[in-house]
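Please check both lines for our workbook:

___
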Amino acid sequence: QTQLVESGGGSVQPGGSLRLSCAVSGFTLDYYAIAWFRQAPGKEREGVSCISVYGYTTNYADSVKGRFTISRDNAKNTVYLQMNSLEPEDTAVYYCAATPGPYSGSNYACGREVSDYDYWGQGTQVTVSS
């Protein structure tokens, strides 16, 4: 059974850091592209970052470039999102998502659209506030 479980969310002051984890089971992480999404109240779900199959490449939304880093540990079947210099605008529920195989025929690409992903976690809340 395919399962993704996020953890690591919480409350932090502006400028602080959090590391989110996405533990996956039921499939081999190597062969899946993984993405982090977020959804703030009243807003659409937004693709924050993604990492391709085998971890060959990463991609970030402009709003988080230079502050967030996605990585994967295939041995632990876990994907991480390191979030630094957090801003109140980063407040949202964060979700990880997975899809098998290459993106658009390439192992060196990944997508940040909701429709690109087949499996989703339940989400973890991140609140940035002073």
Remarks:
- The first strand starts at residue 3 and ends at 7.
- The chain is about 0% helix and 45% strand.
- The two ends are 40 Å apart (CA to CA).
